[in-house]
Protein: Putative zinc-finger domain-containing protein
Amino acid sequence: MLKCRELVGKADQYLDGELLLRERLAIRVHILMCHHCRRYLRQMGALLRAFPHRHDSASDEEVCAVMEHLQQHADKQDEPA
Structure:
């Protein structure tokens, strides 16, 4: 049987529909018996619906743009007044 810790590790994939049938069934069986994980998945689902445009990681271009902006801001801080 799936353990709570394992369910938490797969919650995002489950809610995104990325798991195999066997894994989805294991989670469904688990949440039938575990009210804590059932509540956890319900709360995670609510968060995903509240913030549908989440990004798992930033692109290289986004990282470079942010780093450049931070460097420009730091350079301005170092300039004499």
Observations:
- The chain is about 75% helix and 0% strand.
- Residues 62 and 68 are 10 Å apart (CA to CA).
